[in-house]
Task: structure prediction
Amino acid sequence: DAKTTQPNSMESNEEEPVHLPCNHSTISGTDYIHWYRQLPSQGPEYVIHGLTSNVNNRMASLAIAEDRKSSTLILHRATLRDAAVYYCILTDNQGGKLIFGQGTELSVKP
Amino acid sequence: GAGVSQSPSNKVTEKGKDVELRCDPISGHTALYWYRQSLGQGLEFLIYFQGNSAPDKSGLPSDRFSAERTGGSVSTLTIQRTQQEDSAVYLCASRGGTSEKLFFGSGTQLSVL
Result:
């Protein structure tokens, strides 16, 4: 399974944009990039996913580098409720076995 | 139900006892996953069921762990002769059709004394 590397932690101020990076230099051509987040004392929840093109949804945007060796999850205006651990995951074919790394713990300051 | 349901939400057991954890996936979801999360750690993959295919058991940590999925729906994770290091939150997730999204339950907090 291709691996991802994320910073252990990041801080943001409320109502400011947040850019969460993820490196995946060994990504294969068929790997999808998924992002999940886990709020305290809850199971993870889906955020966004993509293959090659940048993606937007109501929660976030996903910017994928042209060589696909890195990606960035963008929260356009962080709120206190966005404080969570964010996981960047690769998987071949659609879905399959998702292997979670340690993720990035995002703190949001008021 | 509307989401993935896990039971019990909390389980306290004594070392050496067997435990069974249950997962009810979202109706119609063909894929079902089990993960384990120790305190302060990330999610550890345990096992993955996809339709009628043989499950991917590559994450099970020892032969004390087993899981089955009956009728393509409900799944039971069984831990035999529990050890203190088995203490963790056990999370179940399901995925349906061509959707790429996993939907997680709230987990079972297992404490082995």
